[in-house]
Design a protein that fits this description.
Layout (H helix, E strand, L loop, with lengths): L4 H7 L8 E5 L6 H11 L10 E5 L4 E3 L7 E3 L11 E4 L11 H12 L3 E5 L3 H6 L7 E2 L6 H7 L4 E2 L5 E3 L3 E4 L4 H14 L1 H10 L23 H14 L7 H7 L4 H12 L3 H19 L4 H7 L5 H12 L3 H8 L4
Parallel strand pairs: 1-2, 1-5, 5-6, 6-10, 7-8
Antiparallel strand pairs: 3-4, 9-10
Helix pairs in contact: 2-6, 6-7, 9-10, 12-13
Amino acid sequence: MADGGSRRAWQTAHVSAFTTVAAYAPAGVGLLAVGVVTEVFGPHGEGVPGFDLSLCADRPGPVRTDGGIPLSVPHGLDRLASADLVIALPGADFRTPPGPAVLAAFRDAHARGALVAAHCVGAFTLAAAGLLDGRRATTHWRFAELLARRHPEITVDATALYVDEGTIATGAGAAAGFDLCLHLLRREHGAALANAVARDVVLPSHRDGGQAQYLAAPAPETGRDEHLAEVLAWARAHVHEPLTVTELARRAVMSRRTFARRFTAATGTTPHAWLRGLRLSAAEELLETTDLSVEEVARRVGYGSAAVLREQFVRRRGVPPRTYRRTFTSTP
């Protein structure tokens, strides 16, 4: 779940779109985290731009993983000195701050203008380096209280899937690394590339809601959650229509109040916010990949006029549609 950070990214000094990525693997690095960065930033076939991805550690060689399987890491900290995007991966020993050389490498990367990110408890590395002071950040919900207690100068949001602070971004635990990485792709390279990568790894390009939806979630009492998913799939296919929460509730065979309650419990967001995000994401892709007028884009994503699309786009994305198109367009 973005927290207004996408908007802030446009309003602060814009980070140049990255092409080189360096992911730091500490001792006990999570195998899932390594898989996330290699899946998102690795090759995706013809027509999808690739990235120069390096996995690095304190020194080249074998690194212990959380699964006990040694991982051969080919690069040392020198890769952090030149990459456009530098990511702190989570490690089993995150409660102990990394050595001075690692902290200095992350500070230097940020100082020279690299985009710095952390996945899961990798946020503790950025916190130890002082890079999160005075900022909002997230981490795995289980360790959010520990991060806040150790670093009271950080505003820790235990509910977000990721927090974007412009030049620094943090993501929640486990699979939320995908949300963080796809968000950074979308922010710096546009929705079309993020969507293409998401399709290749068989994931949604954006998940609505936050970590709260995964905390002690009760099992579905009936088959209605599956029915709810069918209704949302129908909504995605009919985004060009003037959809309303009342219509979605009718299709779900629920009262509006019951639908809103079950929807929020299942997704972590409200039906109104979900519909708005659906329309804006569809508008982003049309702006990037077609030369349709803003008026026609507005019509195709279910807004009554270009003025309404512009108002929502500026409020939620921080820029008007035409400015977004100039930044990310892939048409001549």
